[in-house]
Amino acid sequence: MKPSDYWALVLVFALLAVAPALAGPFYTRLLATGILYGTAAVGFNVLFGYTGLLSFGHAMFWGAGAYTVAIGMVKMGLSFPASLALSLLVVGVIALVTGFLSLRHTRIYFAMLTLAFGQLLYAIALKWRSMTGADEGIYGVPRPLGDVVLYYYLILGVSLVVLLALLKILKSPLGLAFRSIRDNPFRAEVVGYPVNRLRLLSYTISGLATGVAGSLYAPLQTSVNPESLYWTFSAAIVFMAILGGSRVFIGPFIGGLLYVFIQDTAMGATEYWLLATGITLGALILLLPEGIVGYIWRRLGGRLE
Amino acid sequence: MGGEVGRRDFLKIAGAGVLGLIVGAGVGYSIGSRGGGGGTETVTVTQTAGGQQASQQAAGGIPGKPLKIGYMYFMTGPFGTYGDMASKALEMAAEEVNNAGGILGRKVELISKDEADRERVVDNIIKMVQDEGAEILVGIDSSGDSLKLIDTIEKELQVPLIVTHAATPKLTECAKRKYIFRVSMYEEPIDVAAAILAAENYPDAAKVANIGPDYAYGWDSWAVFSSVLKELRPDIELLDPVYTKLGTTDYASYIDEFNRQKPDILFSSLWGGDAATFFKQAVQKGLFNNIKAYINPMLGATDTLKAIGDENVPQGGADIWGSGRYWFDYPPPSVYPVNKAFVDNFKSKYGEYPAYVSGTSYTALYAIKAAVERAYAEKGSWPDPDDFVKAMEDLVVAGPMGPVYVRGGDHQGMYEVYWGKLARGGGKYPHPILSDLKVFSPFKVFPEPLKTRVEC
Amino acid sequence: MVDAGFLVAQLVNALFYSSILFMIASGLSLIFGITRILNLAHGAFYMLGAYIMYTVMTALPGGASAVLGILAAGALVALIGLLVEAGLLRRVYGKPEEVQLLLTFALILVLDDLAKMIWGPEYKSLTTLPWGSLAVGDYTIPVYHLVAIAVALASAVGLWLLFSRTTLGKKIRASASYPEVAEALGVDTRRMFMATFMLGSALAGASGALAGPVLTAYPGMGTEAIVLSFAIIVIGGMGSILGALAGALIVGFTRTVMAVVYPVLEVALIYIVMAIVLLVKPTGLFGGREVERR
């Protein structure tokens, strides 16, 4: 049987649903982080893998989501669902504005513009002390359901909903339009697609998905810091997508999970974990550009994007 | 050795200055002893150097496995030297304690995580406790990290954390934490002392300027320093403070602006590489010929002093004042054996002088030992986290920096603040040093518990 | 209260800072212009230059060793550039940019940790500046700053001569613009790319060496530099040496003026300028008429 996106999703989430029974509290928590990283990377990949635009600023959606939930719950006294709704609104607005400006360009210029907007948001978070707590960030964010394992299932449920929605979009005519822009924007334009508006739509959907993941991360950590907006985290999201494989829907999700565990292991094993991370990343790009899931997928006879 | 000393005695000790007391009392290792006093007034003073202390033998209620203590510092990256110097002292302390039989017979085993992994600070703290079995935590360099760990420690883990470096007042002074303690000096007393120093030594100063890092630490330091100075010298003019991005490499334009403004006093909370870079550029641009005093609360860090180098210490010109959380030459090793033993052992083991983070992390391990032993004396079994917390409160530990009194009211370690003038190491020391130390009693410069000038 | 000495001192400050920025950004821009690779690890090359300068100047103090240090840094970093180009980047020419960006990002992590292994994690202070200083009223201008400005100026003129007056320069340009034609005319484009990469790396190394005695070397110092160089070549136009010069002067002077006038906006203004330039003239002030492939 050839692998399918839906069955892969069901299998992975079924495994994740039973995982807390086997993992201790720490590894359950680590998995929760991995699920959120993975969801953020899948969101990133809607733009990158399916629409052909490399963003080097996705940390801005992750961070904006995390900050808005933290501000909503700690500073405004809102409930978690209300904060989450507010966070979607804020991330959506940021995506529309930065998308409108950045999408006047493509390729490397687009990558650098997203990086610049990401850094601008980072600079704002560092300066706007009354709202963001500057470098100290916001701490004491209450965790819905309190317990880590219960919250794990909330994260798992929300992530599943987000991924199913994204998959549905990508399988729809809209998804086909994204792909045709990715493959040949000139032809897409000739065929009659409103290329610029579709790119903005893809950018916004992508940003919202990453933003939801970030929003759920703040209560998991009970805090949020400017690092969540820094450009190296944007690079990490790109790394996750490539690690898992940007040409399979589930690839970046697995990439996010793997990233968390690789980092956890590399740090424990060596003082020079940056070196180890760098070599892993370099080797992966040169030797396995389709990513780990992409490779397995192809060997199983699945179709790559 | 070790002994008991009344809390009032400590107050006297600290009030009079450690030096006077130790010399005056003429005792060697223990600071003073008084039989049982009883009740809450009694605190344990533990001698911290060397391994002569005879531990109680393992008895009932003491786990057979080693005591795992987890620490977290910046081990890599530009701040990696902090973790390096702190962990060396922790390893040394653990070795000493283990050679003397451990804590109540339990060997100490250290495990660690790198704070430089910015995304995983919270996760790694949890990992040490839940996955690797740490019973007590030590460390934390960054103030931001210390704050974001509050909920994790207090609600999720409920395991004691002894902070040895992060210096934001908010950690201990905005609310009383249950499981979090800090045995290292925090920002505020050093800044208060700086203001007193400035007011007393430069009565004619008319203008004061500031250059600090552009984040909470820089803003708070200037807020405390300038407000206290203004109370002492209402007529003094405060120039608009300058804040620079962390990691700024070119200060020339700020320096020439100071050369133009000619403030009498320049206060600077720049630290680490930034402090060294600014300092060297200030020397190159002749700033110290245009001002009377340069006051930097973080100048007394050995890594910064090394980076500045002897050849950059100006001869003549402005007075250059530095402070820190511990200075290896104070209390003078010649009269304070705890510090002498610490510095000598550290030097012979690692070939360099201890940094201030070495002094504070070393103290943390002995504070743990003292608290466990104190709790055991009361209860007769190994303390659970709540017993441990109770034993840490109002504890006095003789650290390399002198006796440290861990206030019950805010879990903050209290000890003397020093300010010294920058001088060349001149071959005797491998880097510039602080000399002509001015020492401030903690009771003069520490605010009351849970009262801070910084906005919570 | 603003006297002539103050203005002269600040002018030298701005020019010195612009010089360092120009040296590093022109190398980055040159490499991108010819090979189409945006080398994120260029900042790490700059860091290596500063460390090499540190090593040379602590071994033999004095004015001559400063000259030696700059030359050594340029040469050694060019050699490292050669290894990186031949060993890694040659495999990804023409590949998608995320591959190139991530590979050079990986290189930053590796080089930062290698620097830590060799020189240790702590800040490396370079010794005092050679050649003394000039006094202008209350202000002190180190001669070293003037020398650095002269070196940067000489580099700019040298690059201009190389690309407008020499056969080698023309061959390099041809290899980038018309590779097939160049090959047909007997130009070894691979060697031209290699030469470009070495030249760009040498500029980063020399820039680090020039900055070294004034600034402080530490693992990771390149990250700050690379983000600024980014802004410079985007403002000036990617691939343009003149653009790198203009961008470096804009960033250098913006910072110097803002530091005195309104420090709050000092860093943000550079990004704002960059965003405006990108929106108005996507190819930068002096960028070519390169058509964006969509």
**Biggest sheet overview of chain C:** 2 strands, antiparallel
Whole-number average pLDDT of chain C? 87
Structural class of chain B: alpha/beta
What order do the strands of the largest sheet of chain C run in, or round the barrel if closed?
1-4
Q: Could you list the spans of chain B in which at least 5 consecutive residues all have pLDDT below 50?
A: 1-7, 14-58
How many H/I helical runs of chain B? Answer: 16
- Described by the principal axes of the CA atoms, the overall outline of chain B is globular
Query: Structural class of chain C, please?
Result: mainly alpha
Topology:
The complex is a heterotrimer of chains A (305), B (456) and C (294).
Chain A: H1 5-22, H2 25-48, H3 59-75, H4 80-102, H5 107-127, H6 129-132, E1 138-139, H7 148-171, H8 173-183, H9 185-191, H10 195-221, E2 223-224, H11 231-244, H12 251-269, H13 273-287, H14 292-299
Chain B: E1 3-6, H1 7-16, H2 18-25, E2 42-46, E3 67-73, H3 80-99, E4 108-114, H4 121-131, E5 136-139, H5 143-148, H6 150-157, E6 161-163, H7 169-173, E7 180-182, H8 187-201, E8 207-213, H9 216-232, E9 237-238, E10 242-244, H10 252-261, E11 265-268, H11 272-284, E12 293-296, H12 302-308, E13 319-322, H13 337-350, H14 356-379, H15 385-392, E14 395-399, E15 402-406, E16 413-414, E17 417-423, E18 433-440, H16 442-445
Parallel strand pairs in B: 2-14, 3-4, 3-5, 5-6, 6-7, 8-9, 8-10, 8-11, 11-12, 12-13
Antiparallel strand pairs in B: 1-2, 13-17, 14-15, 15-16, 17-18
Chain C: H1 4-35, H2 42-59, H3 63-87, H4 97-119, E1 124-125, E2 133-136, E3 139-142, H5 143-165, H6 167-177, H7 179-184, H8 189-211, E4 216-217, H9 221-236, H10 241-261, H11 266-280
Antiparallel strand pairs in C: 1-4, 2-3
Characterise this structure.
- The complex is a heterotrimer of chains A (305), B (456) and C (294).
- By secondary structure, chain A is mainly alpha-helical.
- In chain A, 76% of the residues lie in helices and 1% in strands.
- Chain A has helices at residues 5-22, 25-48, 59-75, 80-102, 107-127, 129-132, 148-171, 173-183, 185-191, 195-221, 231-244, 251-269, 273-287, 292-299, and strands at 138-139, 223-224.
- Chain A is globular and about 50 Å long.
- Chain B is an alpha/beta fold.
- Helices cover 39% and strands 18% of the residues of chain B.
- Chain B has helices at residues 7-16, 18-25, 80-99, 121-131, 143-148, 150-157, 169-173, 187-201, 216-232, 252-261, 272-284, 302-308, 337-350, 356-379, 385-392, 442-445, and strands spanning 3-6, 42-46, 67-73, 108-114, 136-139, 161-163, 180-182, 207-213, 237-238, 242-244, 265-268, 293-296, 319-322, 395-399, 402-406, 413-414, 417-423, 433-440.
- The two termini of chain B are 42 Å apart.
- Mean pLDDT of chain B is 86; it is low at 1-7 and 14-58.
- With 294 residues, chain C is mostly helical.
- Chain C has eleven helices and four strands; from the N terminus they run ααααβββααααβααα.
- In chain C, β2 (133-136) and β3 (139-142) form a beta hairpin.
- Chain C is globular, with a radius of gyration of 19 Å.
- Chain C starts with a helix and ends in a 14-residue tail after the last helix.
- Chains in contact: A-B, A-C, B-C.
- Chain B binds chain C through residues 76-78, 80-81, 84, 242-245, 247, 249-250, 252-254, 256-257, 259-260, 262, 272-273, 276-277, 280-281, 283-286, 290, 303-304, 306-309, 311-312, and chain C through 1-3, 6, 9-10, 13-14, 16-17, 113, 116, 120-125, 127-129, 133, 135, 138-140, 142, 211, 214-216, 218-221, 224, 255-256, 259-260, 263, 266-267.
